[in-house]
Amino acid sequence: MIRALLIWVLLATPVLALDPSELLQDPVLEDRAREISKGLRCPVCQNESIDESNATVAQDLRALVRERLLAGDSNTEVVDFVVDRYGEYVLLNPQTTGANLALWLAGPAMLLLGAGVAGVYIRRRDAQPKEQAGVLSKEEAARLSKILDD
Predict the structure, then answer these.
(1) Taking the model in full, what pTM does it have?
(2) pLDDT of 120
C-alpha cells in the first residue's frame, strides 16, 4: 500500500508543476506548448524540463512559450527564440552541429583511444620475455649454496 502511494506521488509530481492558470484555452495550442516545454531544460533544475519543474524561471519560460505560440510563432520559432535568449543549455537534446559536435564525438573518441592504449600495453607486455620463477642461474645457485653453508 505504501509502495503504491509512493509510486503514485513520484509519477504525479510533473502534474503539480503546471499551474492551471497557465493553461491555454485552445487545446491544440496547449498541446503544442506542452510538447515544446518537454524539450526545454529548466536553467535552475539540473536535467529537468520546464514542463516538470516548479521553479520560478520554469514558470516564466512556460509563460514565454505560450506567449510566443499565441503570437503565431511555429514550434521551431519558439524554440529558437528561447535558445537565443537563454543559450543552447536550455535544450534537453542539444544539437549535434558546430562546437557541440566535438562534445558528442569526444566520448567515443576517448573510448577508442583508451582501448588502443590498453591494446598496445597488453601486446607489449606479452611480447617481453618471461622470467622463469623458481629457476636459479649458476651464479645465484653458487651464492645460495655459499650462504646456506655458512
Answers:
(1) 0.57
(2) 95
